[in-house]
Amino acid sequence: MKYDFDRSVERRNTDSIKWGLYPDDVIPMWVADMDFVSADPIIRALSERAAHGVFGYSRPSQALILAIQQRLARLYRWTIKNEDVVFLPGIVTGLNIAFQAFAAPGEGILAQPPVYFHFFRDPVRHGRTLQDPPLVQNGDTYEIDFDRFEKAITRETRVFVLCNPHNPVGRVFARTELERLAEICLRHRLIICSDEIHCDLIYAPHRHIPIATLSPEVEARTITLMAPSKTYNVAGLECGYAVIRNPELRDAWKDFSYGLIPGVNIMGHVAALAALREGEDWLVQVLDYLRGNRDYLEVFLRENVPTVRMCRMEATYLAWLDCRGAGMIKNPAEFFLNHAGVGLSEGSEFGENGTGFARLNFACSRQRLAEALDRMKSALEDL
Ligand SMILES: Cc1ncc(COP(=O)(O)O)c(C=O)c1O
């Protein structure tokens, strides 16, 4: 089936977080969901389940676990057992379980800003300490300063939380980088919590490597978080999972979660299964469209707004824009909201070294992207 991503669907008055935040004349390009209708097989499966009409307690089917196993085997040659999969209502929930189950109050979490704010806000909010060696900007991309990374580790550090592919800088970490990170973590006996929620939204020639697949030793210290939510635009259905191969870590995880973390709802299961079994066709097409939007954005900025520099994007639909050259040292998202009617995410939300940057979600029709960019260009011309 051919999907039409140029078609804009009205999302106002649908209780959407993205579309409900700003007045109707603002184009919202902040929170990470797509404005696209999800894959047809997912919609069909959900409709059939809704028509059944009985919504009692549910559990993940064996078919869903098998589909996850087959996906990991096919994409990464990663063989896992049934019991290694632990379902979650969301990946942020998984991050917080990792922070609290494996670091006591006062103990440390290691994160690399600029990064998704739950990586550094949540540990601190729950009484953990933060070690935050920053990613280092190098031209139009970011790199890891491994010396700084290792030096940031203290005797209290317990968990390294990795974002791969990275939100917001769009990196897909290479095998050599992952190997060096893993080697340091193993030497310091850290647990690795690897958030791989964006792992399907990758632009060729880049390839995702789950850090757990590097070696049995790394696998034994790693919790991998994955979900169909970003890939298939089903975040509102709240279905994710952790892959935890080490039974000791898994037991600690389950002990912590007991009575606190609900299972996944029926619709989340249904959507996940349909996505994994029949969603490939949609995924190929949406990636193609997103690649087109990424290229459009890159060319537009280069030709029309050269003072705003876009970070090279290897993955995700979240562009990281360096606005410091446009005279916006402080709050570019606030500027574009007030002067262009475009709702971006403020870079400083991702850490101090995000100040002067803005994140732009381009998972929308090309026409809407073009309109937003025209508005941003005019706002800068009037500056
Ligand atoms: C890296 C990362 N992890 C987790 C999430 C949110 O996951 P969930 O909605 O499943 O809690 C996001 C959403 O933007 C994200 O970018």
Description:
The protein has 383 residues and is of the alpha/beta class. It has 14 helices and 15 strands. The chain has a seven-stranded mixed β-sheet, sandwiched between helices. The chain has a four-stranded antiparallel β-sheet with strand order 11-12-15-14, with helices on one face. The mean pLDDT is 97. Bound molecules: pyridoxal-5'-phosphate (PLP).
Query: What percent of the residues sit in helical stretches (DSSP H or I)?
Result: 40-55%
Coarse shape: globular
In whole angstroms, the N-to-C terminal distance is: 46 Å
Low-confidence stretches: none
Bound molecules: pyridoxal-5'-phosphate
- Count the DSSP helices: 14
Strand order within the widest sheet? 2-10-9-8-7-3-4
Global Rg: 21 Å
Order of secondary-structure elements: HEHHEHEHEEEHEHEHEHEHHHEEHEEEH
Q: What's this, in brief?
A:
This protein is of the alpha/beta class and 383 residues long. The protein has helices at residues 17-20, 40-52, 62-76, 91-102, 118-125, 146-152, 175-187, 216-219, 229-232, 247-257, 266-278, 280-304, 332-340, 366-381; strands spanning 27-28, 85-88, 108-110, 129-131, 136-138, 141-143, 157-163, 191-195, 222-226, 240-244, 309-310, 318-322, 342-343, 345-346, 357-361. Helix 8 (216-219) links the parallel strand 8 and strand 9.
